[in-house]
Amino acid sequence: MNRRTLIALVALTPLFGVACSGDDAMNTTTTVAPEVGNPDPPLPMDINSIPYKPGDLVALGDVKIQIGVPTTSEENGFSFDVTVTSGALEPFTISPQMFRVYTLDGKSYISVAGPGIEQFGNYTLQSEEVYQGTFSVKIPTDSEPVMFLADLSPIGDRYFPGAWIFDPNFTPETQE
């Protein structure tokens, strides 16, 4: 995945491309860029503009979240470990709908239960408690998983959305 793909998803701007080259109709080569869809559901407006990477420990208000490096298997589909640490003084409840994997085509998926894996995100955290689990999704299309979204903003004003990109080679462009 390249930077344009991420920027298209984060900016909610679809990117469609077809490039043709050649001198005549007989030698025309067509290259079709991957189709990037509009995120469904749309990304929160206050999401971070530069995504985090697996392994980054990120404070999103009164909660810290860290995700592991994703793996793919026949049995569990696309999965990775997630750790949620409460920094709140009061208990709060998270739900599976607060955590999604977005694919390049814009579709999103919540965690599903698999062999030996419970559905991620159905939990109430107490003050300073750590919740760990495996986020596992089955993606029914050939579209590549590109981003993990944790949107805890429905809990209250002290919780924010955050996005992690799965591309290990992603480096944000520096502004001059």
Features:
176 residues; mainly beta; Immunoglobulin-like; four-stranded antiparallel sheet; 1 helix; disordered N terminus
Please provide a written account of the structure.
The protein is mainly β. The protein has a domain at 46-163: Immunoglobulin-like, CATH 2.60.40. 5% of the residues lie in helices and 35% in strands. It is built from one helix and 13 strands; from the N terminus they run H-E-E-E-E-E-E-E-E-E-E-E-E-E. The chain has one helix at 3-10; strands at residues 18-21, 29-32, 57-59, 63-67, 71-73, 77-86, 92-94, 99-103, 108-109, 123-125, 130-137, 145-151, 161-165. Strands 3, 4, 5, 6 and 11 form a five-stranded antiparallel sheet that branches. Strands 9-8-12-13 form a four-stranded antiparallel sheet, with no helix packed on it. The protein has a two-stranded antiparallel ribbon with strand order 1-2.
Q: How far apart, in Å, are the first and last alpha carbons?
A: 24 Å
Content-based structural category:
mainly beta
CATH architecture of one domain: Sandwich
Helix content bin: under 10%
Number of helices: 1
CATH topology of one domain: Immunoglobulin-like
**SSE order, one letter for each helix or strand:** HEEEEEEEEEEEEE
What is the percentage of strand-forming residues? 35-45%
Shape: globular
Low-pLDDT windows of residues: 1-25
Largest sheet data:
5 strands, antiparallel
- The strand count comes to 13
Q: Any idea what the radius of gyration is?
A: 18 Å
